[in-house]
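Structure first, sequence second, as always.
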C-alpha cells in the first residue's frame, strides 16, 4: 500500500463544501484559540461563538447527545432540559473545566450585572478531552485570562490542528487536535449550511480509516514494536455542529446523534474509556432571555432532515481528517512526542483520487 499525504484531506461524500470549508461558513459563527506551548505545558483553550451578540440575552436553540460518557463536561444537564445555548462553547483539557466555567460566569456577569440577583444564573458550557500524554495536566496551566484571550481572538478565519484546546491532543497515536468542515445542502426547496468543529483526541493507530481505506493497519504494522498501538481506546472527541437551518432543540439533538456515523467511519468504536459528545445548534433565530413568548420561524419538518443528517455525518468525518492533516508534530511532557500524520506517513497514496493504489 502506497499513499501520498497531500496538503489537504480527501473530500468526504458527495455534498459540496461551503466557501471556506469551515464551521464559519454558517454565518455569524466565530472560533478563537489561546495556545499554551511551553515545554511540558502543551494545552490551550478554544471557544466557539454562535453570534456576535450577548448570548445570555439572545440565546440560540441547541441540544447535545452523549455517545459515550467518559467525560467531565459542565452545562449538559441544563442544555438538555432547556434546549438553549447562553454562553460561548469552551473547549480545553479535563482539569481546566472548572476554571473555564468560572471564566464564563464572570464574563456573563460583567455583561449582565444582575445575573444571579435580579436575573437567573447563567449556564456555562465547557467540554473537555484529556491531553495528559503531551501536556502536564497536573500543572493546571489554563487560567481565566486564557479563556478571555480565546474569546478576543474569535474570528471566521481561524487556525486548526495543534492549536488552542487541540495543542496537546492525540488521535490514532498521531497528533490530533482541532478540525473543521462544512457542507451545503438542499432541504424543503431551500439551501442551508452545516458546519462542524471537532476536538479530536481518540483512536488507536490500527483503527484509522481514511475515506473508507483502512490505512491504519499498514501504519500499525510498520510500528509493530510500539506497544501503545495495542492499548485499549481511551481517548475522546467533542463534535460541535452549527447550521443555519431553522430547527428546534429536539431536531438538533437528532442532527447531533448523526455525528456518530461520521466518527465511526474514521475507525472509532467509542471505547469504554472514551468521552464522545456531540452538540448541535442553529443560528436561524434567537430566543430573547426576557421574552414572555417566542415567535419562531417556520421550522423544517422532520421528513426534510435527511440532508442535514448526511451533512452532519460527512462534516464530522471530514473535520477529523482535517485535524489530522492540519496538525503539526508536538513534543511535550517527559519528552513524549506525537508525530503529525504527514510526517509519520509521508508515503500515503493520493487519496484525492478516491482510493489506494497498490
Amino acid at each position: 500500500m502506497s499513499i501520498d499525504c497531500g496538503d489537504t484531506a480527501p473530500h468526504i461524500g458527495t455534498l459540496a463544501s461551503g466557501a471556506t470549508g469551515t464551521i464559519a461558513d454558517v454565518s455569524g459563527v466565530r472560533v478563537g484559540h489561546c495556545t499554551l506551548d511551553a515545554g511540558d505545558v502543551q494545552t490551550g483553550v478554544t471557544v466557539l461563538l454562535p453570534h456576535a451578540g450577548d448570548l445570555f440575552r439572545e440565546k440560540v436553540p441547541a441540544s447535545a447527545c452523549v455517545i459515550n460518557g467518559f467525560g467531565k463536561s459542565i452545562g449538559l444537564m441544563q442544555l438538555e432540559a432547556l434546549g438553549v445555548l447562553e454562553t460561548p462553547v469552551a473547549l480545553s483539557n479535563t482539569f481546566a473545566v472548572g476554571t473555564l466555567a468560572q471564566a464564563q460566569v464572570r464574563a456573563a456577569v460583567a455583561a449582565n450585572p444582575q445575573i444571579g440577583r435580579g436575573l437567573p444564573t447563567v449556564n456555562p458550557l465547557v467540554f473537555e478531552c484529556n491531553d495528559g500524554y503531551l501536556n502536564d495536566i497536573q500543572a493546571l496551566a489554563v487560567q481565566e485570562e486564557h479563556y478571555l484571550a480565546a474569546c478576543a481572538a474569535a474570528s471566521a478565519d481561524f487556525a486548526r490542528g495543534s492549536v488552542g484546546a487541540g495543542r496537546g491532543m492525540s488521535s490514532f497515536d498521531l497528533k490530533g487536535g482541532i478540525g473543521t468542515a462544512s457542507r451545503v445542502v438542499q432541504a424543503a426547496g431551500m439551501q442551508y449550511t452545516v458546519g462542524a468543529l471537532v476536538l479530536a483526541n481518540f483512536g488507536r493507530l490500527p483503527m484509522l480509516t481514511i475515506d473508507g481505506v483502512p490505512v491504519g493497519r499498514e501504519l500499525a504494522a510498520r510500528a509493530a514494536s510500539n506497544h501503545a498501538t495495542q492499548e485499549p481506546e481511551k481517548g475522546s472527541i467533542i463534535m460541535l455542529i452549527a447550521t443555519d437551518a431553522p430547527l428546534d432543540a429536539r431536531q438538533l439533538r437528532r442532527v447531533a446523534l448523526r455525528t456518530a456515523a461520521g466518527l465511526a467511519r474514521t475507525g472509532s468504536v467509542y471505547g469504554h474509556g472514551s468521552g464522545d459528545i456531540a452538540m448541535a445548534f442553529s443560528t436561524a433565530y434567537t430566543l430573547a432571555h426576557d421574552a414572555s413568548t417566542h415567535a419562531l420561524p417556520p421550522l423544517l419538518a422532520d421528513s426534510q432532515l435527511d440532508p442535514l443528517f448526511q451533512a452532519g455525518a460527512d462534516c464530522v468525518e471530514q473535520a477529523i481528517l482535517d485535524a489530522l492533516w492540519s496538525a503539526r508534530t508536538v513534543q511535550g511532557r517527559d519528552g513524549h512526542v506525537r508525530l503529525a500524520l504527514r510526517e509519520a506517513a509521508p508515503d500515503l497514496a493520493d487519496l484525492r483520487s478516491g482510493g489506494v493504489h497498490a
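Margin note: Confidence is low (pLDDT under 50) at residues 350-358.
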